[in-house]
Design goal:
There is one protein chain. This protein is mainly beta. It has one helix and 34 strands. It has one helix at about 5-25; strands spanning about 40-50, 50-60, 70-75, 85-90, 100-110, 110-120, 125-135, 140-150, 155-165, 170-180, 185-190, 195-205, 210-220, 220-230, 245-250, 255, 260, 270-275, 280-285, 305, 315-320, 320-325, 335-340, 345-350, 350-360, 365-370, 375-380, 385-390, 395-400, 410-415, 420-425, 430-435, 440-445, 450-455. The strands form seven sheets. It has a six-stranded antiparallel beta sheet with strand order 23-34-25-30-31-32, with no helix packed on it. A hairpin with a 5-residue loop joins strand 18 (about 270-275) and strand 19 (about 280-285). The longest helix has 21 residues, at about 5-25. It starts with a helix and ends with a strand. Bound molecules: beta-D-fructofuranose.
């Protein structure tokens, strides 16, 4: 048996061994993507190919810590029902033996191409290789080896290739740490996806490393999305250990851009990736986790799994700001309309539900979920504040966002141990995990507005 087969077999054994304990966890999500066992992090290779959505993910099957990552694989026809596909990539070769790290997918010549980073660490010394794997059926991938080696001027923190094309060429951005230990994104060009020409630094200027870059046109403007490390907390901004956000600018060989904005105001959000689907929508998945941020305190580790992904979101640019809204397909999740009345209310609700508080008229108010998380709003100063107990010591911690104009609506997707809160149709989003006690099952809405609540169907 070769190394690839051996790793596949071991991963499969791990899935089977812990299946019962993983799926019996009351914190297990029923409509969000979570790892079959072990640890999930970044969404990878996100693409719609021949009508089918393919989503890959960073996966560590052998434990709930980070390590030599695999690429897990799911497919979907409707963004609601997902099918677990065979493992796409295992860390089986000399150039990726310590992890098939993050990357992206592109279609060319009827084949699905995956670009990823081969991570190698020998006696603590890191090497990095940008690699290619291709597939004719979108299920079985042939590794083609190393395409890009580390250029001069950078440390081995050089990873996460995102590839795209226009009518004439292919392009790639990579997250890179410069030799002076500052973060940047570099870019490459290619005619054929094989030979890549290094074009230089696309953007830099703060932090010590930028991970998972993504570069695309959104409503006529260039957006660079990335996850910078090493930003200092300032007021309500940059409160998580690492950030995830974007700059908007103009690009013609040179990229000039404005201020950095965080994409999400919640506690757990990182390493998002987008794709343009066949309907022309810019769709995003994020990781509902942050590296090095109290990961060791997640109670799901006892059940041999950790972390999950966000729901798919559609991006829009309005008044210089990215709006994220849950894709419209997600209304298919709605099962029963349990509440449809004017707030305030207090009610026992299911662990998988969608809550919509619309046409909010009260000046101030709050929503408390399972006596655990509270969303306070204040229309006068336009603030939304999310409070929850910290995973390590239970002390209250908070995140704050400010809306541009008036607060109108709050839409929440609850899924056992997580929530995604969309304010004003996606102007602000708070994504977070929630490890509430099972003795508490009430929703309290202290606000005037039109309240609707649906129980949501189980998909996993
Ligand atoms: C981001 C990240 C990437 C890397 C991957 C490894 O969360 O650190 O930069 O490719 O995770 O799993």
């Amino acid at each position: 048996m070769d190394r690839d087969q051996e790793l596949r077999q071991k991963a499969q054994q791990e899935v089977e061994k812990y299946q019962v304990i993983v799926t019996s966890d009351p914190y297990r999500p029923t409509y969000h993507i979570a790892p079959p066992v072990g640890l999930i992090n970044d969404p990878n290779g996100w693409i719609q190919w021949n009508g089918i959505y393919h989503l890959f993910y960073q996966w560590m099957p052998f434990g709930t810590e980070h390590g030599a990552k695999f690429w897990g694989h799911l497919s979907s026809t409707n963004l609601v029902d997902w099918k677990q596909e065979p493992i796409a990539l295992t860390p089986s070769e000399w150039f990726d033996k310590d992890g098939c790290y993050s990357g992206s997918a592109i279609s060319h010549d009827d084949q699905l191409h995956l670009f990823y980073t081969g991570n190698v660490k020998t006696n603590g010394v890191r090497e990095t290789y940008q690699c290619l794997a291709t597939s004719k059926d979108g299920i079985h991938f042939d590794k083609k080896g190393v395409l890009i080696e580390l250029p001069n001027g950078f440390t081995a923190h050089f990873r996460d290739p995102k590839v795209w094309n226009d009518d004439s060429k292919f392009y790639m951005v990579i997250g890179a740490q410069k030799e002076d230990n500052t973060g940047s994104v570099v870019w490459y060009e290619s005619e054929d996806l094989q030979d890549w020409e290094y074009k230089g630094i696309l953007a830099d200027g703060f932090g010590y490393m930028w991970e998972c870059p993504d570069f695309f046109l959104l409503d006529g403007q260039y957006v660079l999305l990335f996850s910078p490390q090493g930003l200092r907390a300032e007021g309500i901004n940059n409160r998580n250990v690492y950030q995830s956000g974007y700059v908007i600018g103009k690009w013609n060989d040179h990229f000039t851009f404005g201020e950095f904005s965080e994409l999400d105001r919640g506690f757990e959000f990182y390493a998002p990736q987008t794709t343009l689907d066949e309907k022309g929508r810019r769709l995003l998945f994020g990781w509902m986790g942050v590296p090095d941020q109290k990961e060791e305190y997640h109670p799901t580790k006892k059940h041999h799994w950790i972390h999950q992904l966000t729901l798919p979101r559609e991006l829009e640019l309005k008044d210089g700001k990215i709006y994220q809204k849950p894709v419209e397909e997600l209304v298919e999740l709605r099962d029963e309309l349990i509440v449809h009345e004017l707030g305030p209310i207090t009610k026992t609700i299911p662990r998988a539900s969608e809550i919509l508080l619309d046409e909010i008229t009260s000046e101030k108010g709050y929503i408390t979920i399972f006596d655990y998380a509270t969303i306070d709003f204040d229309k006068k100063n336009r603030t939304i504040k999310l409070t929850r107990p910290a995973f390590d010591n239970g002390e209250k911690e908070e995140r704050v966002g400010i809306v541009e104009k008036d607060l109108n609506d709050i839409r929440i997707f609850l899924d056992h141990s997580s929530f995604e809160i969309f304010i004003n149709g996606g102007e602000l989003v708070f994504t977070s995990r929630m490890f509430a006690s099972f003795y508490h099952s009430t929703l309290e809405v202290q606000a005037q507005g039109q309240l609707s609540l649906w129980s949501l169907r189980q998909k996993f």
